[in-house]
Amino acid sequence: MITALPNAQTPPAKHGLRVVAAGKFLQLSDGTPHMLRGVSYGPFKPNSRGEPFPEDDQLAKDLRHIAGLGFNTVRLYEVPTDAVLREAESHELRLMVGIPWSEHVDFLADRTLCREIEARVASACARLREHSCITAFLVGNEIEKTLVRWMKPRRVRAFIEKLIDTARSNAPHTLVSYATYPSTGYLVPRNADFLAVNVYLETADAFRACLSQLQNLAGHQPLILTEHGLDVAAHGVERQAETLRWQHEYLQRSGCAGSVWFSYTDEWYRGGREVTDWQFGLVDHGRNERAACTVLRGLPSLMPAPDVPPRISVVICTRNGAATLSACLSSMSELRYPDYEVLLIDDGSRQRIAEIAKSFPQVRYHYQEHAGLSVARNTGARLASGSIIAYTDDDCLAHPDWLLHLSHAFTDENVAAAGGPNIPPPPRNRIERVVAAAPGAPAHVLLDDTEAEHLPGCNLAIRKEALELVGGFQEEFRTAGDDVDICWRLRETGRRLVFVPGAMVWHHRRFSVRAYLTQQHGYGRAEALLMKKHPERFGYLGGARWRGGIYGDQNPADHPVEGSIFHGPYGLGAFQVIYASSSFRWWEWLTGVLWPALLMLALVFHQPWLALGVLAFACWAAWQVSVRNAAASGIHGVANRLLLWWLSFLQPVVREWARLRGMLTLGARPSRHPLLPDIIPPVRPHKITFSLGTLRFWSEDGVGREQWLNEMRKSFRTAHVIFREDDGWRWFDFEAWPWAEVSRAYMSVTEFHSEGRCLTRVKLLLRIRRSLGWHLILWLIVAAILMAAGLHSLLVLGLLATLGFVLLVPLGVWYVRREMLSMTRAAAIKAGMTEMR
């Protein structure tokens, strides 16, 4: 089957139609695909009306020129005026509106300021809500990295998510996000409509690697670079033009939903003055074009196929899948790829599959007696004429560029298989919405940002000769587990499996609770089969041991806590991300078959209170899982949350019970020497931290935390205090006597205000080893047992110990705080700062 790639230019904006998120990409509200091609505009010196935009004549010329360069979107850093809206609509341009506020200060310390920020966001969104030319609101932009570390990433993220909710409630039909940057790459709001990131990288390899990492942070959402560009003053005009060309190519190949080039003009006004040190513009101050404008006009709007596109055979295996098959086959007819075929393998269905297939002449239909999924997949491979076999399911809908993205992965001859994300389509009812958020969905497993250990069979392309080399799919996997087995065996040949974020398919989750639990039961049975064949890949409790990180049930940036983020020493790292760690918690052991066993054991021994405690703990553990998934999936409402909790409660029991029965039936046992994960989770801190207060120091001369840190080092050495400095993982700058059970620590941040003035904040911290608390609890338990045994004399000792604790601990804290205050103030005075009371 041959289809030609359309030679289309960037279509103008269709005003009246909204831009909406559609999986990893954007589209208009009528379903037309929409690739965001944007350029930033401003901020400018105030015009004659005091507005942060050029005069009306210049504004009209600029937007006309921007449209002529092929852009369809303009990013603004100020709320647009009526003149801006009028000119944008007249030139069929869309706007990405940034809502400015005081992002450079510790806004969380001032409740009044927080309310003012929320009011500003609400006001801007409410005023512009009816303008369909607004593509998106950005409720913030690049909160400074040391400031985020100071305020704590989780608290900052919570505030941003609150602003997004505020914006969405005032403009419900407009996309909303927050623009982060690589220095706070972990700051990913879970309720944003897309991931917005500002990226400035000058080499192709670094840019490509960064895009791969950002796509994994984006998860199932679109990725948009809200700023990227190159400084002409530092690199020259020709280098800027060449950078624009290859960045556009990599943006298309990586599956980005769009990007914003920074900027249209060199004219840039910030902090009350014109910035003249940088020249990022496509045009200069006088609006004279640079070479990049010529490159822009020749850029392809659609990603081209490889120079020699391989023939791809799409294989769809079905058994009684009539409910979703027509939509699946219809999506295959809309694929934008020059050389592919579609094979439908009917595994003994009792429904009208053949009749549906006749409605699609381009589909080759083949019927076989019911033999299972693996046999059907092998049949499809045998009949395929392509060198690449792309497998998907009958309940999937492929994105038009699915094969286009997959084909580029196979330009590397060492790649044996490739696959992309499988994303649940917009739910039709509340049951589908909750089931899509429930745990246990098919997920890819990545060793790094591109290298995969497992790719789900609903979106899996395999080189035909590599599949034949390993003997195809194993026939005992009749319903599930075949994809895991084939991926493990392909990797054992030494060839690569790669994840392609742009190769997206919509994948319906189950349509009912019963179907969902049946699916999980099948997954459990398949895990027992896998254990029989690969015992070394399973742990002692029966769970699969993955070398990589599992993506799917939650956002990778879901746990921004101390020890999980490498900030760089003193929080100054240029690229700060959450490092891979397991989302498993010890209490999740009680979410499977273990708690029913303990419950029955307690009842057998007539311990009803113990049984009730086990049941309550299992309910609490399931609630923790459901809360995590609800936050990642946007599940709201009491009824929906209760249903999600119920599914989180039942799913591990059903799946583990099926796996346990399968292990007993098949005689499957995990190996005594299981493979250990290659990715070692970062070590979490062994101490908990309490704040003893914050000091503020002002400087008119630009003196900040760096000078204060130098003076503190001198003070420690003079006083012969042993201390350690932040190694990049900790939320303090200095810790004195770090090995002690109780230690003191200091943390600082500097806010940069206008005209070079600085405000430095210093937080005094008391760090207590976690084991100390457990020792106290253990002592209380032992004392209670002895008292229950009749040793009432211990009551007096206990009261005396409690009294001593109540009196001595506050006294000790007061003394430590006094010393810390004295040292902090002395260092600030030596650095040339003035304390603010």
TrEMBL record:
Q: Which UniProt keywords apply?
A: Membrane, Transferase, Transmembrane, Transmembrane helix
Q: Where are the transmembrane segments?
A: 609-626, 771-789, 795-816
Which Pfam families does the entry link to?
Answer: Glycos_transf_2 (PF00535)
Q: Where is the Glycosyltransferase 2-like domain?
A: 313-468
InterPro entries noted in UniProt: GH (IPR017853), Glyco_trans_2-like (IPR001173), Glycosyltransf_2 (IPR050834), Nucleotide-diphossugar_trans (IPR029044)
One GO MF term, please? transferase activity
Gene3D superfamilies tied to this protein = Glycosidases (3.20.20.80), Spore Coat Polysaccharide Biosynthesis Protein SpsA, Chain A (3.90.550.10)
Q: What is this protein called?
A: GT2 family glycosyltransferase
Please give the organism.
Prosthecobacter vanneervenii
